[in-house]
Design a protein that fits this description.
It is a single chain. The chain is α/β, with parallel strands linked by helices and about 375 residues long. It has a domain of about 210 residues: 3-Layer(aba) Sandwich (Isopropylmalate Dehydrogenase). About 40% of the residues lie in helices and about 20% in strands. It has twelve helices and twelve strands. Helix 11 crosses helix 12. The longest helix has 19 residues. The protein is globular and about 60 Å long. The structure holds nicotinamide-adenine-dinucleotide, 3-isopropylmalic acid (IPM) and manganese (II) ion (MN). The site of manganese (II) ion has 2 residues, from helix 9. The site of nicotinamide-adenine-dinucleotide (NAD) has 21 residues, from helix 4.
Amino acid sequence: LAEYKIAVLAGDGIGPEIVEVGVAVLQAAARRFGFGLHFEEALAGGAAIDATGEPLPAPTLELCQASDAVFLGAVGGPRWDELPAHQRPEKALLGLRSGLGLFANLRPARILPQLVDASSLKREVVEGVDLLVVRELTGGIYFGNPRGIFPEKKQERRGVNTMSYSESEVERIGRVAFEAARKRRGQLCSVDKANVLEVSQLWREVMGKLAPEYPDVELTHMYVDNCAMQLIRWPRQFDTIVTGNLFGDILSDEAAMLTGSIGMLPSASLGSSGPGMYEPVHGSAPDIAGQDKANPIAQVLSAAMLLRFSLGEGAAADRIEQAVQDVLDQGYRTGDIATGGHQPIGCRAMGEQLLAALERTDGS
Ligand code: NAD
Ligand code: IPM
Ligand code: MN
């Protein structure tokens, strides 16, 4: 019997509510498909600051390094917003990403047919959308130096961040994206701001040099401002998008709305070896935290990605994704995806329906 160790970082806000559902779904899938999961919880984000004074205590990073995968809810919230950047809850995420070498962030945005009317865009625009944002996750302006708030003149300070990418950083995310595009519809759109930024000129050049190695993939380039518009105008033109850390952060939230709600979007963060980290694209949603209103589906779909990418349990992952479709077919909706005829249900009730659907599918 295969036995895997999963580090669970529930975090802040709605994190604990949705992670509870995600863990229950993973347990049910493990029972059903005959493998063992051993969960170990650790502190991260605001919860860790409150308990230890640090957003990412050393034992948390060590646990993650010694696990097969990391399952994270969300971190952050208004209570910690006044702290300096390096002490904020968000630093836990950034520290995990760099500490585990997770340079490739996969953010698939696929509209489920049941939700075409939940999007704020017209049905004919979002129907059939199925795209993947490959976001570089350990470089760019999030990590560049110099950074800080520096005194300049009397009574005037300057805030500084640096966007920088080395050729090898671009090449390795480029390879992940070409490989992903190859397994999808063979179209890769590299998004940059090469009309203004040198960092983007180099990015574009490196992507172009990789292209001949992937003759089955068609590489195109697009400026990020145009891409933001094209995602809303005609999202079906996109298959795989590859972009830097900041542009990928923004474009993936935008892509989320094509699927009906940001509460639907999962992600996987992968390195070249070691454990991957799986978390929803959304944040800790302080406005609905503690009210049993959160949509747990992004967390549950992240669990499916964990099974598929880190544990090689593809059949269990498929089953979880089917269970999501089943509960939507049955008409169950949390508030964020409820339209017209639906009476919204809570996070916990959605979790119970997902578990019931997991037990039921296959008729066995
Ligand atoms: P957010 O994604 O938390 O919330 C944006 C909006 O989407 C809110 O109205 C929220 O209620 C809604 N929403 C998000 N997830 C939902 C879900 N599962 N179900 C239903 N509605 C959902 O973004 P924000 O408000 O800008 O950020 C809040 C905090 O989260 C900040 O501290 C931010 O830094 C942090 N954050 C963390 C992560 C992460 O841990 N991965 C990601 C993004 C933001
Ligand atoms: C995300 C979040 C994070 C990011 C923050 C919370 C550090 O927005 O995972 O998309 O900007 O990467
Ligand atoms: Mn984000």
